[in-house]
Amino acid sequence: MNKKPSESPVARKGSFLRTVRAVAWSLIGLRKGSEYQQDVEKLNPLHIIGVGLFAVFLLVLGLIGLVNWIV
Description:
This protein is mostly helical. The chain has helices spanning 16-28, 33-42, 45-70. Helix content is 69%, strand content 0%. The termini are far apart.
């Protein structure tokens, strides 16, 4: 079971901005198949999970703030 260096999450060199952009587009639901494949190859899954959880947390806080502002 030989793994290529690109298959290891540690060896992936995705930038933080690219991770944030990928998560944002995924939350909106607009992703191209080719960009998804690039993200799969380059981004670290643990970074995606962390940024995704933080984005959902911000979304919930924003919705709570919006409801409190309206009511």
